[in-house]
Design brief:
mainly alpha; Helix Hairpins; elongated; about 70 residues
């Protein structure tokens, strides 16, 4: 997921965000491993993945804190 904006993330469901978070954490692990062994070619990808993980965590926190609007009784 390249260039993910917070708006794009807010449009995703809770399950989609969790799936994306798991995928990015696996990628982050692999990137760290590549860096340690000297095989990492795209060093900027580490930064992008880290920031995207932070964005997803922020959106997940917003979704938990924001209550769903209650229906008005007529």
């Amino acid at each position: 997921m390249k260039g993910t904006t917070a708006t794009d993330l807010r449009a995703m469901s809770h399950d989609q965000l969790n799936d994306e978070l798991i995928k990015l954490r696996k990628e982050q692990f692999n990137l760290r491993f590549q860096k340690a062994t000297g095989q990492l070619e795209k060093t900027a990808r580490v930064r992008v993945v880290r920031r995207t993980i932070a964005k997803i965590n922020t959106v997940l926190g917003e979704k938990v804190k924001t209550p769903t609007p209650a229906k008005k009784k007529a």
